[in-house]
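Researcher: We're teaching a course module on how sequence relates to structure. For the next exercise, students receive a sequence and then see the predicted structure as tokens, so they can try to spot secondary structure elements on their own. Here is the exercise chain.
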Amino acid sequence: MMEPHAVTADDIGEWLGEHHDIAVFLERLDTEALSSSDHATLTALARNRQEKLEKKAHTAATRLFAGSDRALLDRWGTWWQVWQAGR
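Model: And here is the predicted structure for the students to work with:
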């Protein structure tokens, strides 16, 4: 039962990692000798991708962590106990 949660958490981690990579790219982009139009194009593309990643991560995290902290812990705790009992 934890598999979908683990997959979602992994996806969120990948998306946030890519978001960070783009942030580093944008920082380094400022040090490159590019034309204004090339710099603007690359910046716009990178920021657009970051926005898409933010939306995906936010949507997935909202579903993953829906409800109260206590409810999430209780649900995962119950699943853990069921898994342990079936081993």
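Model: If you want an answer key for the exercise: The chain has a mean pLDDT of 93. The longest helix spans residues 36-64.
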